[in-house]
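Show me any protein, keeping tokens residue-aligned.
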Amino acid sequence: MQEKTRYRRRQYLVSTKFQLKYAGLILLLVFMTALLCSYVIYYTMMMTMGDKLANVYPQGRLLGIVNAVNFRIMVSIILIAPLIVIIGIFASHKIAGPIFRIERYLGAMAEGEYSTPLTLRRNDELMSLASSVNKVVDSVKVCVKDERERLSQMYSSLEELKKVSVSKPLNHASLDKAIDKLAGEVAALSKSLEKYKV
């Protein structure tokens, strides 16, 4: 029984453009959410407590408090941004990593490599796509095996045909039989190739 190869993450930025774009999108969504929440809270607070605070604090002091709150909100968002980018890169790696592996695997398939199945890490996304690719590979392997067997039979028939053609005296019945056998094998190969739409 063949052991499954375990793949460990060694590099988290495997598709830099995709992953940074993904992290940027998450960062933008967090900024927009933070700004919207801050505005709603801030606006609600000022509408509810603005008049009361204006009576307690002098105008300049109240403005200083509002500016301090604005500054703290902006600093918090700026300090959280790198954490959001890192989370975005880690989250996108579960998509970008499998895409990278699938692209490499398909490139190997294009060069005729069908010996190993496509494997992804247990928690990666796109498992169903990897499973579908493996089904295609298994189907191709079966077809290649069948075609190789037919080709081997054709070589055997060709050798038999050569022997009959050089035999003295030439036996026409054996020659016709060998030709018919080879023609049947060529027809069977041709029929099996008809299923491929290229």
The radius of gyration is 35 Å. Helices lie at 16-56, 59-110, 127-166, 172-193. Residues 11-125 form one domain.
